Amino acid sequence: MLRRRVILPILASLFTFVLVVACTQANAPTGTSTSSAGDSGGAAGGNPIPIGIAVAQTSNVALLGQEQVVGAKIAEEYFNQEGGVNGTPIRLVFQDTAGDEQGAINAFTTLITQDKVVGIVGPTLSQQAFAADPIADRAKVPVLAPSNTAKGIPQIGEYIARVSAPVAVVAPNAVKTALKIDPNIKKAAVFFAQNDAFSKSETETFQKTVQEQGLELVTVQKFQTTDTDFQAQATNAMNLKPDLIVISGLAADGGNLVKQLRELGFKGLIIGGNGLNTSNVFSVCKQLCDGVLIAQAYSPELTSPINQKFREAYKAQNKKEPPQFSAQAFTGVQVFVEALKALDTKTKLSTLSPEQLRTELNTQILAGKYETPLGSISFDPEGEVNQSQFYVAQIKMEQDGSNGSFKFLN
Amino acid sequence: MGNFLDSYGFLIVSTFWGALLGLSVYLPLMAGQLSLASPGFYALGGYIAAILSTQVLPHSGETYPFGFVLLEMGVAGLVSAVLAVILGIPVLRLRGIYLAIATIAFVEILRVLALNLEITGGAIGIFSIPQPFRSPVGYLWIALPLLVLTMVLLYRLEQSHTGRVFRAIREDELAADTMGIDPTYYKVLSFTLGAILAGMVGAVSAHFFNTWNAKQGTFDNSIIYLAFVLSGGSRTFVGPVVGGMVLTALPEVLRTIANIGGIPLWLGGFLQAMRLIIFGLLIVLGSMFYPQGIVTPELLNRLKLAFRKQPKRIST
After folding, report:
1. Between A32, A127, A194, which is nearest B258 by CB?
2. Could you give the domains of chain A?
3. Is the pLDDT reported for residue A27 higher than 50?
4. Which of A203, A235, A331, B251 has the smallest number of CB atoms closer than 10 Å to its CB?
């Protein structure tokens, strides 16, 4: 009975807290932010302009989401030091989407109705985008997808655009590079993780490219991202003697598959999909990772001034090369800032109502051209990104087999 | 008020789905059957609605006809019922943990099937599902009547002959059998009722989420729905409703608390980052101090007494 006396007041107070929250929320559009907006260098006064960042800060996608958070924060600091939007600083509002659809919808709703953001960068996964983007589109809030690469994202609505090039554009470059390295490739085998949305759409592109390049597609093998043993699939494929193997999977399973293929004696080239585009694979396949080709939408070695500044800022903080996800999140924020600037020069932002601002901003985003860490990009009228260049990297492992790097081939 | 509904419409409707899914686990549990098959039927219902609305049923104009949604719910309920009977007759011969394992297997089979079929869109799933309402709050028109109706039916069910039979099987199946009750029939009945409910909720949820994919019906969801019932209370139908609502809302309420003005920034940041940990902690505390769930029949009786005789309070 004593227990009850303790726990009931706790529950009661929690409930009261909930009620208080429900009643006071109307006049509390504050939100948590990184708070760096106020003290930023030369940026003059005025209320900071809120931009929403809705990515997966928790759950099993958090590895990607956290890279995006880092990229966005660097962008906030950088652009506020540059003077923000013609003197008005920007303020990023972070809401965690976790890894599921419900979380994404909740984060978007909170950003739109409570934080009153002018636009949103997010969410992390394409599946989440299919759930949450229609909410923003109906509320007429522009969304820039930093990492959604599935087919059909910009087509969700007129307020939805993306800075992440679809797989259909990025992936073929790896196959072309492989043919450049070894023109004698005739037969290709394709592997993919069938329970991963990204790998599923990526493999379709790979299979199409392989055939378009005049190669013979000898087999398509499926696995699960949770698998650790790939002997059966690897042996099946090896029996058909392919010269090239293409893998669409995530870091752990893809890395293991590379390792087991090499252990079974596969000597040809291996192409990894974008899921393997992370230094996390190094610890999985160690020395055997060496030579894997990966197509990328971003190269840290791009020599444009904006990328060098981004790379420096990232390296100063994290002591390693910036990954693609951080660069894309940075780009998302950059596009918002530059579009806001262009809009502000035409009509003062403070004279626009929030609804007008969002609509005009959306038009401005699609009209502009941007020099970003990804290279120069622009958008087509649907909101699909036009990116000028893509990159192919090859994994180079050091002698001890524990450290490696991506070496860019073009 | 308008702002409140805009902000919390989605969450409010989500809590109703949580309550209904809790009830779909509770129904087989009434007859003592620990079934984890609800997410399977939920996913099935969602796929039925997603496929019907994007490929089969023609519609024009911005909003999707309300009647079609009801039709999809009907179809989903019907298919779920048929499948539940076919599955239930062999599976319900198993008891306790073996039944739970068999139903987990069923959920997995449906998930792998959805990943491999063309019509379900593989891992990406089906997207651009048309909307019957202009905002998430509109779904209250379906969620509220469905929940009230289900609760009324369950209230009647618990008072009726069938409800007593369920309870008899739950307490002692062998004894019930010797009294002349056909346990298989009633077990399949309770299982099927739960499946119909889960299928119907799935059908609306596909519209509600705009998209549907294989992640909706996983083992994780089985456990979450079970948690709704266990933390709410498994002895009366009010329990799963309370449990489903509270557990669905809690992570979002913690997010909102982190967001209100006047809270120091570090505390807000802490709550924002830690909300899922706090959520887990509350579940652990709840099951330690309330092993029977928050809502028990005794509590309901006490409340009833307290309402009837205001002055007389029963001391605890």
Report:
1. A32
2. 39-165+304-379 (3.40.50.2300), 169-296+391-408 (3.40.50.2300)
3. no
4. A235
Query: Tokens at residue A403, please?
Result: 């450290």
End-to-end CA distance of chain A: 72
A316 touches chain B (CB under 8 A): no
Chain B residues near residue A58 by CB distance under 8 angstroms: 273, 276
Please, which residues have CB within 8 angstroms of residue B258's CB and are 6 or more apart in sequence? A32, B267, B268, B269, B270, B271, B272, B275
Any chain B CB within 8 A of the CB of A204?
no
The two structure tokens encoding residue A409:
């081939």
Residue A79 is inside which H or E element, if any? Answer: helix A62-81
Whether the CA torsion B167, B171, B174, B175 is positive or negative: it is negative
Q: Which of B10, B124, B276 sits opposite A106 (nearest CB)?
A: B10
Alpha helices in A161-271 (DSSP H): 167-170, 172-181, 197-212, 231-239, 251-263
What residues pair up with B232 in beta bridges, in sequence order? none
* A8 has pLDDT over 60: no
Tell me the H-state helices in A182-221. 197-212
Go through A135-164 and write b for each residue having 16 or more CB atoms within 10 A of its CB, e for each that does not: bbbbbebbbbbbbbbbeebbebbbbbbbbb
The CA distance from A143 to A157, in Å, is: 10
Residue with tokens 């600083």: A89
Please name the residue that has the structure tokens 């289900």.
B150
Give the torsion through C-alpha atoms of A177, A180, A183, A188, to 10 deg: 0
**Structural domain boundaries in chain B:** 2-232
Closest to B252 in 3D by CA, of A85, A181, A98, A122: A98
E strand residue ranges, A326-374: 369-372
pTM of the predicted structure, to 2 decimals = 0.84
Is B187 within 8 Å of B167 (Cβ atoms)? no
Interface touch A32/B272, C-beta < 8 Å = yes
pLDDT at A277 over 50: yes
State pLDDT tens for residues B142-152: 999 999 999 99
Band the pLDDT of A281: cuts 50, 70, 90. confident
In this predicted model, what pLDDT tens digit does every residue of A297-331 receive, in sequence order? 898 888 899 999 999 999 999 988 898 899 999 99
Q: What are phi and psi of A21, to 5 degrees?
A: -60, -45
